[in-house]
Specification:
This protein has 392 residues and is an alpha/beta fold. It is built from 14 helices and 13 strands. It folds into two domains: 22-267, 3-Layer(aba) Sandwich (Aspartate Aminotransferase, domain 2), CATH 3.40.640.10; 271-391, Alpha-Beta Complex (Aspartate Aminotransferase, domain 1), CATH 3.90.1150. The model has no long low-confidence stretch (mean pLDDT 96). The structure holds pyridoxal-5'-phosphate (PLP).
Length: 392
């Protein structure tokens, strides 16, 4: 007999996916209609307008790519770079390394600017790379590094690219709706994000936005974009504003209902209020972790509220602790990646999951699991977190 799949009910406090608001799951279960149905075209227009709001942009070419964040990343690279180009890539974690991979697969050359994991992109090193590589067509960096929990200075980096006559390519997969992402104010040229982090939507879509300068660059390319599916010249024919929409691929209809609902939720709360909520719960979580005697990996001024890298205390068994959290509390937190594997846990406070109840659950669960496994931790985590809530 065929058996349906019924997933366990989890609390998702890792690096994504984050807990999905039930309203979004309900929206997703509404009837599927055709992707050229006039009613659906109306939904697409509304999704574009709402994405412009969360990205803080007037860019006409703002839409969700029909695939996860990695596809949005790839869309930016294959459309802006041609074979033989040079691009400067800042790497201070896992995702800068993926940018390098994309650049090389475009037949372009990646000039690396590397920084220690857990620190932001160094402005001085970038200035040096720009001076040494005036031939570079793009400066690429990750705004919110999910592998380390670090925020880099997107406004300054985009300005440096613009002044050097280069395009900027920015990863805001984890940034969007969690912290300030101001595409127009930054003057960013190609920006991609994901649905399953601070938008708290189901995974599988990647909002992207391209500046008028980037669009001109794409329309005037000499070489065809190497990816047929991600060629924005073709995608524009379906998602474009004017006239008749041409079939390109079948849009993920129900996933777009979900994204639309997620964007409605952000609009209702207000973007600034959403950033403030992430910041508040982050302060409470950190107060609790520090009261327990744990320490944070990243210096306070560069911390992302939505991704908290906490150092694994001495004597704790990384995998055993995460397994106990999952089995006993149905709570998922993230492991360290790359050079931080085995050294940190990554606690996400993303979107719907950034709330009072989750902060207290996580602190309580972590404290009791660590104690049960013989790791000495101080008491008072819950009081410290509540102290933040009560004074603010
Ligand atoms: C999650 C993430 C991605 C990749 O997104 P997927 O949806 O997993 O493909 C890219 N960059 C950053 C910074 C991320 O956090």
């Amino acid at each position: 007999m065929a058996a349906s799949f019924h997933p366990p009910q989890r609390t998702l406090m890792g690096p994504g996916p984050s807990d999905v608001n039930p309203r979004i799951l309900e929206a997703m279960s509404r009837p599927t209609i055709g992707h050229l149905d006039p009613a659906f075209i109306g939904l697409m227009d509304d999704v574009k307008a709402k994405l412009q709001y969360v990205f803080k942009t007037n860019n006409t070419l703002t839409l969700p790519i029909s695939a996860p964040g990695s596809a949005g990343m790839e869309a930016c690279f294959v459309n802006l770079l041609s074979c033989g180009d040079t691009a400067i890539v800042c790497q201070n974690g896992v995702f800068g390394g993926r940018m390098k991979e994309n650049i090389e697969r475009c037949g372009a050359k990646a000039v690396m600017v590397e920084d220690e994991w857990g620190t932001p992109v160094s402005i001085d090193k970038v200035a040096e790379a720009i001076a040494n590589h005036p031939e570079a067509v793009a400066l690429c960096f990750v705004h919110a590094e999910t592998s380390t929990g670090v925020r880099s200075d997107a406004a300054t980096l985009c300005e440096m690219a613009r002044e050097a006559g280069m395009l900027s390519i920015v990863d805001t997969v984890t940034g969007l709706a969690g912290i300030d992402v101001s595409v127009d104010e930054w003057g960013a040229d190609a920006v991609y994000s994901g649905t399953q982090k601070c938008l708290s939507c189901v995974p599988g879509l990647s909002p992207v936005t391209f500046s008028p300068k980037a669009v001109e660059h794409i329309q005037n390319r000499q070489q065809k974009v190497q990816s047929w599916f991600l060629d924005m010249n073709l995608v524009m024919g379906y998602w474009g504003g004017e006239g008749k929409r041409a079939y390109h691929h079948t849009a993920p209809i129900n996933a777009l209902y979900a994204l639309h609902e997620a964007l409605c939720i952000v609009e209702e709360e207000g973007l600034e209020a959403s950033w403030a909520r992430h910041a508040l719960h982050h302060r409470a979580l950190v107060a609790g972790l520090e009261a327990m005697g744990l320490s944070m990996q990243v210096a306070a001024e560069y911390r992302l509220p939505q991704l908290n890298a906490v150092n694994i205390p001495e004597g704790a068994d990384d995998a055993a602790v995460r397994a106990a959290l999952l089995n006993d509390y149905s709570l998922e937190i993230g492991a360290g990646l790359g050079s931080l594997a085995g050294k940190v846990w990554r606690i996400g406070l993303m979107g719907h999951a950034a709330n009072h109840k989750n902060v207290l659950l996580c602190l309580h669960a972590l404290e009791s699991v660590l104690r049960a496994q013989g790791v000495a931790v101080q008491s008072g985590a819950i009081d410290a977190a509540n102290g933040v809530y009560h004074t603010e």
